[in-house]
């Protein structure tokens, strides 16, 4: 029997408001749901140029452009309405398909990352969420994207996400520092800073007004990552602020605006920041002090801004006025460039010579990318587009210019010609493009995913990442058996194996109907040798301190190693025979030590007779004390004492101490060769403390650390090489060599 299933328009039910300028639709084709959010520009609502023409130009018209794609999809769906798609009888109960990811080879003790995101349920509708925000770090090593309520970090050389953080609300902006170490993110009424090594924010700050809803342009981070600027404000009202933060999260300064702050940008040297607002205000500030250098109120809403390296040039793209305005650092207007469309985004070379701009209609006549020069009033070249020129970026030396268009294409240019060097067609309209400072890598945020490119060796596409996931209510449940007795859950768990071996990992996925699918991968864990370290060779010194002289005199001997006191003794002289006391200290012969004698004479001003040091029958004395001090400053004296000639190590039992660590759950055997032809000495330390380690034993204690101590006496003076070898129960060994001098 053959069943037929209809694929219907609006099969799912997201918000849908016909009476407003905003509605949302969801289409399903062959099991895939496509969401489109539409903002319609209704001519009767456009009252006048100043009040309404600029109202929502950047964000609204991005959504208008998106609606073209969405409505086209709707037309296609309507055409498909009534068509029957044959499906087999078991199509309504197909088990999910599990994908445990590739086989892996790792080292003992490594954190193993598993990826089951390739699993899917053939019955589940799939949502492909558009990516609206992208930024490439200045060094071209990292890429950050924003999609929905999530921010995801990648390395340029891999389509596997480093991490994803769910902010809980719509991500409006993201920017990476030059090194890629820091990532600033703006969402709703919050700004957060991440160290990219972790998905946990270093700090978050709540703003009074929401982050301006112009992707990426409403937030910026200085190239060195030391400062973060963010623009906020309620759209199309008279409320807005600019905030300046330190890297540590402290608020440096903030200023109010008579409208939402749409664009903030740092100069390359990090000393200046420019901010443009919807209500015709462009301001330049000192980053450190917040000093306002100047304000310009000419033109229309300032949706896009750019600066040269030291802010010698400041440029602004202005709303519906179809102009790019150029200022110098003092706020003097150098010139305006008439363009034939609304300015969406601009970029400036570090030397301030070139300005690239993306423009779109409706408030104009041409969709295009254009290149301008700051030393001439006309453009260098213009490239006309079939639909909205959405976004643009430039290498700092203007070697390359990348543009993104709502025609699904990414375009690469250089300064010499308006003919693209390279064009790539993605699967959806382009929201934003970003290029590293040298122009080696660039990326595009598209309705259909993240697209990454390089110019190294010639322009070419590197990889794509699509954010596809089951519709709400159709998620899979993931269960992992790591093959060593441990289990895990989630699509991307991690696990550490405590012993080498070959492990079969089994992933079981379960759909909402309770049907399951399984897949396996193999993890080969290599043994890692332990690391051995000598903790010291200790000589038990016994030093007798004998003091003569005037009663009341105090003498103290202190022995130190590495700024730590390892032994001290004090003698206070009394009447009668010389007074004495004995010091016991374990001196580490592998490290330098100091011995210091401190002398305090009695209050009657009389000095002391000699102080003796007696070690193993050997005696030394100090007779350099002031015998009858008349100056109170000489009552307290200190002397460096040389004990080397008195310390006899030959024939004495020296204690040898060492430590070793193995990343796995292995037994460890310490073997000492003292370098004097005597037999070696060995000791074994069991991982479980009582018995030999079975193989494999990934469930044991790991990493495993053991300490060893043994004694040995040398019968002759000389310098000996001591070798410590530590071996684990899988044959991995490491050695540590040191020398000891015996007197």
Give an overview in words.
This protein has 743 residues and is mainly beta. The protein is 4% helix and 51% strand. It is built from 2 helices and 59 strands. The strands form 15 sheets. Strands 46, 49, 51, 52, 54 and 57 form a 6-stranded antiparallel β-sheet that branches. Strands 5-45-44-41-42 form a 5-stranded mixed β-sheet, with no helix packed on it. A hairpin with a 2-residue loop joins strand 51 and strand 52. The chain is extended. Residues 1-91 have low confidence and may be disordered.
Helix content: under 10%
Net shape: extended
Largest sheet, strands/sense/barrel: 6 strands, antiparallel
SSE class: mainly beta
As a percent range, the share of strand residues is over 45%
Our count of helices gives 2
Q: How many strands in all?
A: 59
What is the average per-residue confidence, as pLDDT, rounded to a whole number?
A: 84
Please give the oligomerization state of what you see.
single chain
Radius of gyration: 37 Å
Distance between the termini: 98 Å
